[in-house]
Design goal:
Layout lengths: L5 H4 L5 H55 L11 E3 L16 E4 L25 E18 L9 E4 L11 E5 L4 E5 L2 E3 L2 E3 L38 E14 L5 E12 L5 E12 L1 E10 L8 H4 L10 E11 L13 E9 L6
Parallel strand pairs: 1-6
Antiparallel strand pairs: 2-3, 3-4, 3-9, 4-8, 5-6, 5-9, 7-8, 9-10, 10-11, 12-13, 13-14
Length: 352
């Protein structure tokens, strides 16, 4: 037997053994790194898809609410709607005869609520848009309605609730089983809301009202009056326009034009359409429509020009949204993920 010596005890690894150990270590590190990077990419992809789905749910939910509320007055009065606004025939948001109107995005089919261009909040050419008008789905009960017969005795509503979010300049819809009337609040005193005829010399609100009389049909020169019964409903007018536009970050988003009350430099409260960015990274927005008795969905041109009788027969809207992930490297080959999502929404005020 070879005797044990200090030299043999101090013997280390050979060069070959060290190279094999290093190779095995590199294989282990490479495998671990591969698993880590794969899991990281899988996480990025799943997170991006989740955000796309979440944004789509938000978009579809908000659009669905507006589509379902189109033509809503709050009372069962068979579409009998008076309108005493001064701009009822000229402003897109005041035209109750056009409560549902789609536009195809071409210059020959332009949405009157939008400006098409490349600037922020400007409509992207070639994409669809839609105007929807109706009463808000929340309202206030009327405890008393004073007849409007003159400037010294204007129409006034007192609500049952002690407080509200209504303000001077708000456009409202007041209704009972006989009819509804669209008018503008010109002054407020506690829980009382006045809708007087506008003095064109020194207007207190814009656009103002053409008459004290809230009867149906509208007659601006009328000196008569109409009393809405107790427990009639008073709601804000909801007028919206959905469209796709450029956003300040250089991408495109889904926008919603809404009717807001703003104060002009002269101090006159006015009804003013205001754009709001709703969902970012929307790359296409297309709409198709179903007419009562029709066999299929058609585009806006298939229904006809805005204001045509065919729009009164539209009872459902098919919404198609194409979205892109905010993470531009979340997909395969370090590309953004793109998804196209479709939903169909019925106009509940037109479905029998």
């Amino acid at each position: 037997m070879k005797p044990y010596t200090l030299r043999s005890r101090l013997r280390g690894f050979s060069l070959v053994e060290l190279m094999i150990a290093l190779l095995l270590g590199l294989l282990v590190i490479g495998g671990a790194s591969s698993v880590f990077l794969s899991n990281k990419q899988s996480y990025r992809t799943n997170e991006a898809i989740g955000r796309l789905q979440e944004n789509a749910r938000v978009a579809f939910d908000l659009i669905a609410r507006d589509i379902r509320n189109a033509a809503l007055t709050g009372c069962g009065n068979s579409g009998r709607v008076a309108n005493v606004l001064n701009n009822s025939a000229t402003a897109w948001w005041a035209n109750w005869a056009n409560v549902v109107a789609g536009y195809g995005g071409t210059s020959a089919d332009s949405n009157p609520s939008l400006t098409t261009g490349t600037g922020s909040a400007q409509h992207v050419t070639g994409t669809d848009s839609i105007i929807l008008i109706g009463a808000s789905d929340s309202g206030y009960g009327i405890s008393n309605n004073a007849n409007g017969t003159s400037t010294s005795s204007p129409a006034g509503f007192q609500i049952s609730e002690g407080s509200s979010d209504l303000q001077v300049g708000d456009v409202i819809v007041v209704c009972d089983p006989d009819h509804a009337t669209i008018t503008q609040i010109t002054s407020i005193n506690g829980s009382s809301f006045i809708t007087e005829k506008t003095d064109t010399t020194t207007p207190t609100t814009s656009p103002g009202n053409c008459s004290h009389d809230l009867s149906y049909p509208t007659l601006c020169s009328s000196t008569a009056s109409y009393t809405f019964l107790r427990n009639s409903l008073l709601s804000k007018l909801k007028a919206v326009s959905w469209y796709m536009a450029a956003n300040p970050q250089g991408t495109t988003s889904l926008y919603r034009m809404t009717l807001q009350t703003a104060t002009l430099p002269g101090g006159v409260p006015t009804a003013s359409p205001t754009p709001q960015e709703m969902v970012r990274n929307v790359t296409n927005f297309q709409l198709r429509y179903h007419m009562s008795g029709g066999a299929a969905f058609v585009d806006a041109a298939g229904v006809g020009a805005a204001g045509s009788a065919n729009w009164a027969t539209v009872d459902a809207v098919q919404v198609t949204i194409t979205m892109q992930s905010a993470d531009t490297r979340a997909g395969a080959r370090a590309q953004p993920i793109t998804r196209q999502m479709i939903t169909t929404i019925a106009l509940r005020n037109r479905v029998n």
